[in-house]
Inverse folding.
């Protein structure tokens, strides 16, 4: 078992490599009611919860981004209202990043904030979404535009969930892992170099090390800048174009798949601006494509993606800002890059 502490609006631990049904027990003590929020696909997996005096409700929400809609958010609040949830009650989010994002936002807004525990069930949620206290839902104007900074009281990472995860979702989670490598932890890049998806998936020790290292990166960054005044932005490496593609694809692509394309774009842009060497730039595409992740997007969509990027949360008064690296582990910002550099970086992705 590994424990990683996070300092934020409240301090909490991410506990890695545990059996979540056992680890949840202390958090259920002295609660009147507990709401387990789970996606449709995962509903049947909620069995054998510890015996507790609390009344347990299981709320099922639509899978993936459909669960991060305003209507689902409202429905969950209505459930809590009907059940008479008080400040002593608890929300447990069991699912991928979509469920942990939604549940955290529900927890932050019901009675101006009640406790919640995150039980991430995808790799992306374990290394990223469930850690760091960013919660939210989507707006028709863009991804994650409605939300709050609101930490859980614990994050319980049970690797057994990964056994049933599709290769597609496992690979999508690895996009966030490799992002942590490029921005902070060069060892992650070393560990993933020349590895294919099967080699990573089938090596439990490697998977555990990658998860622990990625959460360590995230914990360190968010503990220093919980509300993303500046430093935390580095976790958005690859996300500016990534979010634009996610919106453009109408969420048919996984978040991690869009981040993968966005990472190659960010490397191309830094290379285009003379900041990142060719070798490190090429390494982005090499590692991501070896893992089976997409690294290109149709060239004809540039103008729509460019428009989508304008509402990125890092933009300031209409000026685009990108997280970039100058070498592995060294981050910086590219402010207001020229339109020709942006287009050239995008065209280098290929179709
Ligand atoms: N809050 C943050 O800091 C943060 C960071 C990264 C991503 N996110 C958000 O997380 C979301 C993406 O999360 P995701 O990649 O986990 O996708 P997801 O939550 O959409 O889950 C993907 C699919 O996997 C299924 N699933 C979940 N666990 C499973 C398991 N163990 N076995 C089999 N199937 C399983 C889900 O039901 C769903 O159909 C996006 O909405 C993204 O914006 C948030």
């Amino acid at each position: 078992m590994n424990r990683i502490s996070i300092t934020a609006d409240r301090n909490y631990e991410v506990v890695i490599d545990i059996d979540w049904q056992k680890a949840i027990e202390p958090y259920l003590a002295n609660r009147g009611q507990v709401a387990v929020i789970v996606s449709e696909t995962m509903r049947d997996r909620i069995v054998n919860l510890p015996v507790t005096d609390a009344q347990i409700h299981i709320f099922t929400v639509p899978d993936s981004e459909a669960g991060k809609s305003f209507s689902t958010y409202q429905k969950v609040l209505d459930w809590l209202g009907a059940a008479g949830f008080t400040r002593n009650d608890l929300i447990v989010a069991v699912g991928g990043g979509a469920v942990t994002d939604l549940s955290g936002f529900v927890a932050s807004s019901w009675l101006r904030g009640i406790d919640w525990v995150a039980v991430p069930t995808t790799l992306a949620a374990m290394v990223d979404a469930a850690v760091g206290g960013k919660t939210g839902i989507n707006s028709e104007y863009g991804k994650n535009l409605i939300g709050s900074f609101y930490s859980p009281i614990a994050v319980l990472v049970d690797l057994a969930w990964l056994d049933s995860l599709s290769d597609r979702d496992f690979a999508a989670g690895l996009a966030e892992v490799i992002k942590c490598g490029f921005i902070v932890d060069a060892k992650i890049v070393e560990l993933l170099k020349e590895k294919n998806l099967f080699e990573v998936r089938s090596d439990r020790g490697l998977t555990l090390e990658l998860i622990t290292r990625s959460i360590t990166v995230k914990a360190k960054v968010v503990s220093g800048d919980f509300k993303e005044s500046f430093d935390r932005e580095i976790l958005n490496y690859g996300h500016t174009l990534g979010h634009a593609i996610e919106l453009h694809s109408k969420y048919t692509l996984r978040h991690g798949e869009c981040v993968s394309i966005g990472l190659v774009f960010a490397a191309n842009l830094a290379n285009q601006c003379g900041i990142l060497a060719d070798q490190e730039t090429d390494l982005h595409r090499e590692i991501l494509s070896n893992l089976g992740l997409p690294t290109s997007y149709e060239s004809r969509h540039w103008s729509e993606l460019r428009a989508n990027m304008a509402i990125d949360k890092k933009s300031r008064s209409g000026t685009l800002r990108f997280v970039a690296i100058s070498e592995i582990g060294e981050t910086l910002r590219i402010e207001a890059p020229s339109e020709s550099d942006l287009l050239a970086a995008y065209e280098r992705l290929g179709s």
The chain has a mean pLDDT of 94. Residues 39, 41-42, 63-65, 68, 95-99, 101, 121-122, 124-125, 128-129, 132, 134, 144, 161, 164-165, 169, 172, 254-256 surround nicotinamide-adenine-dinucleotide (CB under 6 Å).
